[in-house]
Recover the amino acids of this structure.
């Protein structure tokens, strides 16, 4: 009787256009996931670069951001970036949806960088750590590599605006590792509890936030969230820049754990994160998501 009276979960609330978009995405992913990993990843990159990106207006957005921040870039390099940036995004998306195949590749990668010893010491001591990365390479490769090594790494995520897409997206990133914390009051409360108990948290502070501080990024004023630095100061957590750099084969990564950010004001610490990420982007410019409206007024 109780089973008969249990209400079914309510379906997602969204628009017809969002539902149709999600159906198309699901069909694409279904076809790609039927292919061997070494084929599906570059193919999804090609589809994103050659078909989806032009429809989404990404080439012009990439050009606008590059004109603002790297005005001396040659046209040939700009044209290459217009192709390669969406290609990396496409590869990243299907890797995240590849579950065990992606996890197996990521977990076999060694940890490199001057911050590895500090990270290992924090784990042994049960000290909280905030791993700050960016929309660069494949940021979830870091999460997979660390969770497989027993690091208590949770991640903060922002729900997608399309509720049907968000449903399977959260399942996909959840397969890589738990816990996940949805941006919002409830998710933030769980996240802080995890951090205060000695957990580790992955966060991506490289997007524009309207309430952020006016800091420098590529020589331009960029509104930037101070939350990572503020939490590090409040909970005595190490703040460590961490990245996964896509390698020339397009399938593997180099995991970098940089030196922890020195203690200072939230503004100084966050500026150090901006500078750290900018330095890496200048070395590998086509691996950052230049489609963001990072410098929007």
């Amino acid at each position: 009787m109780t089973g008969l009276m249990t209400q079914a979960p309510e379906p997602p609330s969204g628009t017809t256009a969002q539902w149709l978009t999600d159906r198309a995405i699901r069909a694409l992913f279904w076809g790609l996931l039927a292919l061997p990993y070494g084929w599906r990843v570059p193919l999804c990159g090609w589809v994103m670069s050659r078909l989806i990106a032009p429809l989404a207006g990404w080439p012009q957005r990439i050009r606008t951001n590059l004109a603002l921040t790297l005005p001396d870039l040659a046209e040939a390099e700009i044209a290459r970036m217009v192709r390669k940036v969406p290609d990396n995004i496409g590869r990243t998306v299907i890797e995240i949806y590849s579950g065990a195949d992606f996890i197996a590749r990521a977990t076999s990668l060694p940890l490199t960088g001057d911050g590895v010893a500090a990270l290992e010491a924090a784990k042994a001591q049960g000290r909280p750590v905030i791993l700050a990365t960016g929309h660069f390479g494949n940021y979830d490769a870091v999460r997979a590599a660390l969770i497989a090594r027993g690091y208590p790494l949770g991640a903060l995520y922002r729900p997608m605006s399309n509720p049907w897409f968000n449903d399977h997206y959260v399942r996909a990133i959840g397969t890589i590792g738990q816990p996940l914390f949805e941006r919002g009051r409830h998710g933030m409360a769980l996240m802080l509890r995890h951090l205060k108990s000695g957990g580790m948290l992955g966060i991506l502070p490289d997007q524009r936030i309207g309430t952020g501080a006016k800091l420098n990024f590529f020589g331009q004023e960029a509104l930037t969230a101070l939350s990572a630095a503020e939490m590090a100061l409040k909970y005595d957590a190490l703040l460590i820049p961490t990245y996964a750099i896509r390698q020339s084969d397009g399938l593997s990564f180099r995991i970098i754990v940089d030196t922890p950010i020195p203690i200072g004001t939230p503004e100084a610490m966050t500026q150090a994160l901006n500078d750290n990420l900018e330095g890496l982007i200048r070395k590998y410019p086509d691996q950052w998501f230049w489609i963001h409206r990072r410098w929007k007024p």
Observations:
- Residues 1-9 have pLDDT under 50 and may be disordered.
- The first helix runs from residue 2 to 5.
- The radius of gyration is 20 Å.
- DSSP finds twelve helices and nine strands in the chain.
